[in-house]
Amino acid sequence: MENVPGMVCKTHFNEFKKLTLSFKEIGYNLSYKTLNASEYNVPQDRKRVFIIGFNGKIDKIFSFPEPQKTRLH
Asked: Who contacts 39 (Cβ-Cβ below 8 Å, separation ≥6)?
């Protein structure tokens, strides 16, 4: 899932933790990171929080790709 970066700021972090704990309680391994689309070959300067989850039975943790050296914005 993806959302606005404000969801992981100090003001909203408790709610974000509740959300991630809900996924963990039903068996998901989660990774999250704030990324800027312009660093991944998207022609706009847009920050978003990405949350990636795998079912715990898969036993995998997501690794986010490294930003591209050339920005398109």
From this structure: 67, 68, 71
